[in-house]
From TrEMBL, chain A:
Keywords: Biotin
UniProt name for this protein: Lipoyl-binding domain-containing protein
PANTHER family with a match to the protein in the record: OXALOACETATE DECARBOXYLASE ALPHA CHAIN
Pfam families, alphabetized: Biotin_lipoyl
Residue ranges of every copy of the Lipoyl-binding domain listed in the record: 1-70
InterPro entries listed in its UniProt record: Biotin_Carboxyl_Carrier/Decarb (IPR050709), Biotin_lipoyl (IPR000089), Single_hybrid_motif (IPR011053)
TrEMBL record, chain B:
GO cellular component: methylcrotonoyl-CoA carboxylase complex
Protein name: Carboxylase
InterPro entries according to UniProt: AcCoA_carboxyl_beta (IPR034733), ClpP/crotonase-like_dom_sf (IPR029045), COA_CT_C (IPR011763), COA_CT_N (IPR011762), MCCB/AccD1-like (IPR045190)
Any one Gene Ontology molecular-function term assigned to this protein's record: methylcrotonoyl-CoA carboxylase activity
Single Gene Ontology BP annotation: L-leucine catabolic process
Length: 70, 509
């Protein structure tokens, strides 16, 4: 199980997967908006998206869990 | 037994190192014997060995647990000290320390690179008065390292523990390579932490190779095996001269690796969209020539040595793919040390700029982002090697300054046609300047107003205007970057300047 965490503080701009999707290692899961930049957050390992902990528009702090991959 | 037979017997015994059981224990952990490590490291093995007979009156301490001497790497003479962990876990006694001091002093006299192969439990507490506090005690090792720093390259390959005071050997090296699973550094072991402060952690959490190369940044390169660590050291050294007096050697240039898409095709028009800076680096350097340092630490900034047409260059590049390429406290520290490293050994610097600025917010202010950023600016400013700054896309705020912007004496600033140099991006600027006006407008008129103001702002910072004002020295087609860099670096290499006259600056730390 892998917890995908926000690499920095910002808003969730886009979620590119949904629960049940199979993701590959390095695949983008969400795109964060921070410092006016689009910041892709990728899965470190491949797996199935078990749960999304955020919705588009949410504010996240650095280290907050965004999704859980199994 | 004749005297020569006795000599041979003694040599054979010492060369075997410690007790067999420690050899097999090491083997189980994938650890090589110190003499096997040296055979892999040097072109023709260790050629001169010093104080081989150190502590030979005590059968249990062959060579007093450390091998010191000189051999060649890529034909270059290099000094080495290598712990033997089969001898009392590679711990330091009086003679161990004296041997290390002497080889460091040899490196200083001959101005040769110094490599530390570290695998040591630390001081022998039973011998502490002889080896710890005195003028020729262990502290002198660090004093020598600090003195050697910037005179000759110093490399640490960490194969096992580097505990307590011993952990300062890696700290004073230019680069630290750590073997995953075996290498560790810590001031206090997990056992000590539990006893003294009540913290319960594993050795890996406390000071493992992965932790240090990703979180603390005390380690620079994470490798899977000792052979890989040794290979990295040999490769790394090939980019460096033997000492600060000389330049790195020129090697035969290689073509760039062929790619389907050109540089202009991989850089997004949208300033805010992410792209992978490695894709740009690969398109300007000799194929497979990138030797990265601190790859896993503060990945929003890429640092490493590479070659353009056979010439060593140091690359500092923002990585928009990670944290938007924003500069943080760790990335500023990473850049500061890397710039010092290249400047010390006459390696020209290439800055690839695509930076929204330094991070803002309470978290980074509390970490002291201002003083960390100041470190990066001082190192960059003081560097007297050729410096080229390429504005790939955006260079906002102090990000422009940190990436060798025009005010910091770069030899030239090259811009791509889409480059934007400004205090901040259009979106942020318009919000900051016209916030009250925007709020006062009826909802349906806001978008049009903001767009009009942003377009006006973008015209104001148009790159041709900045070229006309001579802020940037030239604007080039991105696909011509390698050609341009090759031409400029080959001319700037004759640059000889002294930054200023003084004892030393009062550096921000």
């Amino acid at each position: 199980m892998e917890e995908i965490r926000a690499s920095m503080a910002g808003n969730i701009w886009k979620i590119t997967v949904k629960p049940g999707d199979v993701v590959e290692e390095g695949q983008d899961v969400v795109i964060l908006e921070s410092m006016k930049m689009e910041i892709p957050i990728a899965a470190e390992d491949g797996g199935t998206v078990k749960e999304l902990m955020v919705a588009e528009g949410d504010f996240v702090n650095e280290g907050d869990i965004i999704a859980i991959i199994e | 037994m004749s005297s020569t037979e006795e000599l041979k017997a003694r040599i054979d015994k010492i060369e075997q190192g410690g007790h067999e059981k420690y050899h097999s224990k090491n083997k189980e952990r994938g650890k090589l014997f110190v003499r096997e490590r040296l055979a892999l490291l040097f072109d023709e093995g260790i050629e001169i060995e010093d104080a081989f007979f150190a502590n030979c009156m005590d059968d249990s301490l062959p060579s007093d647990g450390v091998v010191t001497g000189i051999g060649k790497i890529n034909g270059q003479k290099v000094c080495v000290m290598a712990n033997d962990s089969t001898v009392k876990a590679g711990s330091w006694g009086k003679r161990t320390v004296e041997k290390i001091l002497r080889i460091q002093e040899t490196a200083e006299k001959l101005e040769l690179p110094m490599i530390y192969l570290v695998d040591s439990a630390g001081a022998r507490i039973t011998n502490q008065i002889e080896m710890f506090p005195g003028r020729r005690g262990a502290g002198r090792i660090f004093h020598n390292q600090i003195k050697l720093s910037g005179r000759v390259p110093q490399i640490c390959l960490l194969f096992g523990p580097s505990a307590a005071g011993g952990a300062y050997i890696p700290a004073f090296c230019d680069v630290v390579v750590m073997v995953d699973g075996n290498a560790s550094m810590y001031l206090g072991s997990p056992r000590m932490a539990e006893k003294v402060i009540g913290e319960k952690v594993t050795l890996e959490e406390m000071g493992g190779a992965r932790m240090h190369t990703t979180i603390s940044g005390v380690g620079d390169v994470l490798v899977k095996s000792e052979a890989e660590a040794i290979q990295y050291a040999k490769r790394y050294l090939s980019y460096f001269p033997a000492n600060f007096r000389s330049r790195p050697g020129l090697v035969a240039g290689k073509e760039v690796k062929p790619f389907e898409k050109s540089i202009s095709e991989i850089i997004p028009e949208n300033q805010n969209a992410a792209f992978n800076m490695y894709d740009l680096i690969d398109r300007i350097i000799d194929e497979d020539s990138f030797c990265e340092i601190k790859k896993k630490f503060a990945a929003e900034l890429i640092t490493g040595v590479a070659r353009i047409n056979g010439r060593s260059i140091g690359i500092i590049a923002n990585q928009p793919r990670v944290k938007g390429g924003v500069l943080f406290t760790d990335s500023a520290d990473k850049a500061a040390k890397f710039i010092q490293l290249c400047d010390a050994f006459n390696i020209p610097l290439l800055f690839l700029t695509d930076v929204p600025g330094f991070m803002i917010g309470t978290k980074v202010e509390r970490e002291g982002i201002i003083r960390h950023g100041a470190k990066m600016l001082s190192s960059m400013s003081e560097a007297t090697v050729p410096k080229i700054s390429v504005i790939v896309r955006k260079a906002y705020g102090a990000g422009l300054y940190a990436m060798a912007g025009p005010a910091f004496d770069p030899d030239c600033v090259i811009a791509f046609p889409n480059a934007q140099i400004a205090v901040m991006g259009a979106e942020a600027a318009i919000n900051a300047v016209n916030a009250n006006k925007i709020a006062a407008l009826p909802e349906e008129e806001r978008a049009a107003y903001i767009k009009e103001k942003q377009d006006e702002y973008r015209r104001e910072i148009d790159i041709y205007r900045l070229a006309s004002e001579m802020v940037v020295d030239t604007i080039i087609n991105p696909d011509d970057l390698r050609k341009e860099l090759n031409a400029r670096f080959s001319i700037y290499e004759d640059k000889k300047i002294v930054f200023t006259e003084r004892k030393h600056g009062v550096y921000p730390v």
